[in-house]
Each structure stands twice: as structure tokens, then as C-alpha cells.
Amino acid sequence: MKKISLILVFLFALIESKAQNPKDTVSLQQHEVVSVANPVAFRQISKTVHIITKEQIKKSTANSIDDLLRIYGGADVRSRGAMGVQSDINIRGGGFDQGLIMINGISLNDPQTGHHNLNQAIDLEDIDKIEIFEGAAGRWFGANAFSGGLNILTNQKSDKSLDVSVAGGQYGYLSARMAYSYQINALSNKSSVAIKKSDGYMRNTDFNIINFKHNTSVKLKNGLLNFNIGAMDKGFGANSFYTSKYPDQYEHIRTYFSSASFKTGNRIKFNSNIYWRRNFDRFELFREDNKWYVKQGDVYVMDADTAGFPTPGGLYPYKGHNYHRTDVAGADAAMKFGSLFGKTSVKLSFKTERIISNVLGENMKDTIFISNSDGFYTKSKNRNNINFAVNQLYIKNNFNLSLGMSVFYNDDFGTYLSPGIDLGYFINGNIKIFASSNHAIRLPTFTDLYYQGPTNTANPGLKPETSISTEAGIKLFYDSFNASFSGFYRLGKDIIDWIKYNPDEKWQSANITSLNTYGLSASLNYSFKNKIVNYAGLKYAWMSSGKQNSEIISLYALDFLKHNFNLYVNHDIMKNLSASWSITVQKRNGSYIDYQTSRQTDYKTNTLLNLKVIYEFKNFEFDVSANNLLNKQYYDIGNVLQPGIWIIGGIKYHLSR
Q1: Residue percentage of the chain with pLDDT more than 70
Q2: 533 strand-pairing partners
């Protein structure tokens, strides 16, 4: 703690340093928030919204999107593997299935499980900005914006450039990326490919990740046409990811994405999207490899060990891997226009979700052979969603009002209405008070509905969970300084969780009657020019939650961050040399069964310090980063140990033409 105190004193001393030109600033309030139905300036939003800028992404201590969300977005990121291998994103005390993930405004939650929501074909350096909104937002986005969500905006502008980077570090870490922007007649193009691999920081934590992304933009006489395609291939050792009893797990993910969007109009603006995302998931409870388990006949063997499950009657052999393929496809159209009554937005969207699997879904009449395996898809499930949303924004002098409603229909669960209202009032030009109340729903995933395992029993009769989120607070805007403080309360009904009534039972998915979550959050941001400190910020959230039935043993619902503190600073050291620091302190509510001791164990307070030093020289950039600089042992999820200090060095080359 003494080391941390000295570092904090140093950082705050930098923040207080004076500059010769205090008026030369770039303020966060100048950013436009595009996630909401009617894009407006950041200062006009009457909800808690965090923005991660391009500059922060470029100079951050993060090595993956999930790191970025933890440090700069204040999200509860529960990592199983390092460097973006797999993480769950929890917003404002919600579970990993309760937050909405969008790419350029397109909703892309994976219907199999929220564990796959961050399996998107995007590299960290492809991102232009991230908008994180807290609280229910069903009236804007339809289903699954239950506790909040985020919108990842990718860079779709071609600047005729070439970017190449390579990096290496501990645990056999290697990464490389190349991005090329170019034009072919009226077509502006940008392509990028990135690879990242490691031998792992401990047994069975190795990974290999490949990302490809391409964007083509066509500026037409009456609008703009955008095409995006992407692919990701990710294989990783999943040591104790889902059960500590069998640590030799492995998972292989392949994700494909494509979309086309069109924008047009001046007084009346129109935009539309069509999109498709496919995710392949192969999960091996016993890793199949010539260094691990090898299939011999009908069983898997590693040396003298036969993979299987002990029973009173003897060993029940492991029969094979789990295979899943999910498809999400849809189309939407939105119209926005202004009048005497403010800005009006109307949006209609359709989405279909489908899974084929050998584990999840309903039995198929005909089976489908799974390529590159000896298995068959035997189960499937399809569901369709329609959402109609209308929202109105009215701004008059110091007052702003945003209200609206979505009508959501699912062919399995019926129709749900999600109304909402946000109010804001500027006491003066710099101080704003605000309040909001919004409704949302969340559909059960296919895992919630159908997963059966040695310790799990699913419930196909689950119904959607609903929430009403309210908050009130104050925001401050002073040139380079932005701050907010708010209190919030969420009433959740029919909450979906895996529960049991006594420790000897199987986990079963069920709708809990209600779950109340409440808390306080605060954030502060600096953004400077011509000062020693380039930008700085902190975020803090305190939360509490309680279920109506105290006799239920809950797997996820009461496992949240009670205290979450994040501080980040970027400052100059000398000409062309700068440093970024981030400090995260987290205290998690809940506990887990320690696999080694078989004891109920409370989560400890985690304190993580990260550092990145950057030197820029002409077209080159050299950097060295150290994650978990204090080499702390910590767990985001029980029994899944995270890495200690991890040092990486890299070089980037940028050429503009």
C-alpha cells in the first residue's frame, strides 16, 4: 500500500501542475453520443454514460477490449483468460447475460451464452470510440439492454495509410498487426489483420487469436454506403474455466460477421442496416491433442488416464466434445427528423436467432454432420424478434426531456413494452441535474433454457426477466473538467439464475421472484492540451443487492462488485516520451468453493497497477507495458487464477500517403 500511496501522490501532483495556456483544452462534453436514438452532445445526455476516446485507446495500458472496459469504462470485467481470451462484462451489478453489446449500433449478443458476447471480429486498434451506458435502455435498443450496454464504434474512414506493429513479451507472447487504407476509384477501403499468441502463464492457459476486418465505404450523391466483414479464430487452454474438477479444458471459437449500412438525408435522416454473425464453439472438457488426451476407439486417453466421470459403479467414460453454431441475422431501418416538438426518432428492426448443437436445443428429425470432427448436430432452436421504437427529444433553454417506448415481440415469449423517460436541467451553464426511469427485458439464452450436465439441470419453461432502472444525479462541465455523481435503483423481476436449495442438489436454471440492486456511482475526467498531464480520470461505484427468497443458493445473481475504483492518467515525461498509469481496486461480494481446500472462500480485495511507456519518433512508436505491476495473485472468478506481472514491448510504424 505504501508503494501505491507514493504513486498516487505523484499522479495527483501532475494533475495540479500549471500550464501557460489554460484555455487550450479539449473537453469530453464536445463528443456526440450516437448510441441513443437521437444523437446529441455528451452534456445533453440525462443518464450515466461513459465515453472511451480514440486517444485513450491509443495510449491506454490495455492489451484487449475487456481490459479497456475495466480500466476506462468502470465495468465489472470478470476474466477467465488473459489478453482477451474470454471475459464476462457486467454493468451496474448486472450479470454477464444482462448487458447489450453493439458494434456500430448493431445488437450482437450471442444467444447461446453471454460468455461469447465479446467474441467479435474486432482488434483493439480497429476501435474509434466506445460508448458505455448504464441502466435499463429497452426503449432505445429493444431486448437485452437490461442493466446497460456498450456500443463499439470502429474506424470506417480511409486516410490512405499503412500501419504495421509487432510486440513480444513474457510467457512466449507474440503479436503482430497490419492495417492498410486505400482507394479504388470511388471506393474507400480499410483492411486489417492481427495475430496474438502465448504459451500461457500457467498450465493450459495458452492461446492463439487471429482477427481480420475489412471496411469499404462508398460516398454516393445522396448518402453513404458502408460494408463491413470480419472473421476471428481463437483457440485457448481453458484451465478450470467452467469447473475446477476438470482443469484440462479447451475451447475453440470461430466468428464471422458481415454488415451493410446506408445513411442519407438532411432535414429527414434515414439509415438502415442488414447484418449477419455466425459463431462456432467447440468445447472440450478433456483437451484433445497429442500432448493431452487422444481418442482411442470410444474413449479419450492421456498416458494411463482415461477421461471420464467417477460413479459408484466405476468410471463413466467421456463421450466427446460439445459443438454449437449460433447465427444472428437481421435488418433495421430508422428515421430521424426535427420539428417544433424537438427531435423524433422511429426505428423498426427484425432479428432472427438460431442455434444448432449436439447439446442445446430441441431434438431435430435429421442430424447434421459437423465438419472436421466425428460428431453430429442433433439439436436446434430458432426464434424471431421484432422491435418497434419511437423516441422524442425536446431541448428548451436549460431543460431537456427525452421519452419514448419500444414494443418488442418474440415468437416464443410474446409482446413486451419498454417505456422510459430522462429529464435534465442546467442550473447554470456548467451544472446539470438529471433523473431517469427506464424499463428493459432480457431473453433467456439457449444455455439457460437447455443446458444439461453432471451438475446442471436446465428449465425450458423459463420466461424473460424484466427490470425498471431509476437514477438521479448531478453533472458538472468546466472546459477540461467533467464530473458526475448519481444514485441508482433497479427492480428486477423474474431474474434468471442458476440456483439450488441445498448444497447437495444440482444447479437448476430458474426465474427468481425479484432482485433489488442499488448503489452510487461517481466519475471525473480531465482532458488537457499543452500540459504535463494529457488526460486523467477516475470512476467509483458502490453497489448492494438482495434477492427476495434468502433460502435460495445463487450462482450468479449476488456475485457482484461491491466496491469498484478506477484511476487512470496519461502524462508527458519529456519530449516525445509519455506514460500511462491505471490503478484498479475491486472488492467483490459473494464467495466460491476453493477447489483445493473445499472451503467456502470470500473474494479478496484486488489491487492492480498497470503502466505503459510510449516513445514517438517520426513515423515510429516504441512502447513497453507492464500489467499487474505489483505482481498480485488474484481471481475474477473463483479458482481461475489470473496472471501476475506481464511485461510486453512493441514497435509500431505508421505511414501516411
Answers
A1: 94
A2: 571
C-alpha cell at 270: 434515414
Give mean pLDDT, residues 649-654.
96
One-letter amino acid identity for 169? G
Q: State the CATH architecture for 2-285+321-656.
A: Beta Barrel (2.40)
Residue 565 has pLDDT above 70, yes or no: yes
CB atoms within 10 A of CB 419: 15
Strand partners, 134: 148
- 34: nearest Cα among 22, 46, 45: 45
**What is residue 26's DSSP assignment?**
-
Give the Cα separation of 478 and 29 in Å (integer): 9
Q: List the beta bridge partners of residue 190.
A: 181, 215
What is the model's pTM?
0.91
Pairing state between β 456-457 and 507-527: parallel
Residues 6 or more apart from 610 whose CB is under 8 A from it? 61, 62, 71, 581, 582, 583, 584, 625, 626, 627, 628, 629
Give the HSE-up count for residue 426: Cα atoms under 13 Å, Cβ half-sphere. 15
CB 174, CB 209: distance < 8 Å: no
Residue 465: all three cell numbers together? 426477466
Which residues, at least 6 apart from 92, have a Cβ–Cβ distance to it below 8 Å? 134, 135, 147, 148, 469, 488, 490, 517, 519, 521, 541, 543
User: How many Å apart are CA 603 and CA 563, to the nearest integer?
Assistant: 12
Region of residue 95 (left: phi > 0; alpha: psi -120 to 50; beta: else): beta
pLDDT at 550: 60
Angle at 274 between CA 273 and CA 275, to 5 degrees: 120
Cell digits of residue 281: 464453439
**Burial (0-12, 13-18, 19+ Cβ within 10 Å), 331:** middle
- For the ranges 25-39, 254-268, 517-531, the lowest mean pLDDT is seen at 25-39
**Rounded mean pLDDT, 76-88:** 93
Query: Chain centroid to CA 253: how far?
Result: 17
Dihedral angle sign, alpha carbons of residues 367, 323, 124, 168: negative
Residues 134, 146: Cα–Cα separation, whole Å = 9
What are the boundaries of each domain within the chain? Answer: 2-285+321-656
Residue 570 pLDDT grade (very low, low, confident, very high; cuts 50, 70, 90) = very high
Contact (CB, 8 A) for 321 and 375:
yes
Alpha-carbon distance of 445 to 605, in angstroms, equals 31
* Amino acid code (one letter) for 580: S
**3-class DSSP state of 110:** coil
Contacts 24+ apart (CB under 8 A), 285-293: 285/246, 285/249, 285/318, 285/321, 285/322, 286/246, 286/248, 286/249, 286/318, 287/204, 287/237, 287/248, 287/249, 287/250, 288/250, 288/321, 289/250, 292/248, 292/250, 293/248
SS3 label, residue 139: helix
**C-alpha to C-alpha distance for 553 and 563, rounded to whole angstroms:** 22
Residue 623 parent element (H or E) = strand 620-627
Residue closest to 429 by CA, chosen among 398, 391, 390 = 398
Indicate if the pLDDT at residue 548 is higher than 80: no
Q: For every residue of 561-580, which 3-state class applies, written as one string?
A: EEEEEEEEEEEEEECCEEEE
Residues 568 and 643: their CA atoms lie apart, in Å, by 21
Distance CA 52, CA 63 (A): 15
The model's pLDDT over 167-222, given as tens digits with 9 standing for 90+, comes to 999 999 999 999 999 988 888 999 999 999 999 999 999 999 999 999 999 999 88
